[in-house]
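Data deposition worksheet. Section B asks for the primary sequence of the deposited chain exactly as it was used as input, without tags or linkers unless they were present during the calculation. Section C holds the resulting structure in token form. Section D is free text for depositor observations; keep each observation to a single sentence. Incomplete worksheets are returned to the depositor.
Section A, Depositor: J.P.
Section B:
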Amino acid sequence: MESVMDNTIGSGRVAAQREVRSGAQLPLSMVSEGETACVARVRGKQELRQHLAEMGFVQGASVQVVSRVSGDVVVKVKGATFALNRDIAMKIVTC
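Section C:
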């Protein structure tokens, strides 16, 4: 778990990053069906992170899990619905 030691008041983005870092984090593949989670970060190679960002998986985005089976998930993010396999869903860290 990351922690922030800086007490300086910064922009809204910095405050949002502090908030994201303070909560419990789970991979998207472990979020229960019907729950909504917030994207904390996306792990993996730059090419994958860029592709997922273009799909809407960016820090702070709200993701609703529509259904899940064995770690594979169908999610709604920014008005679009996507099916993600377990490997990709494990790279999206939520809070």
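Section D:
Residues 12 and 23 are 17 Å apart (CA to CA).
The beta strands are 26-27, 36-42, 62-69, 72-77, 80-84, 92-94.
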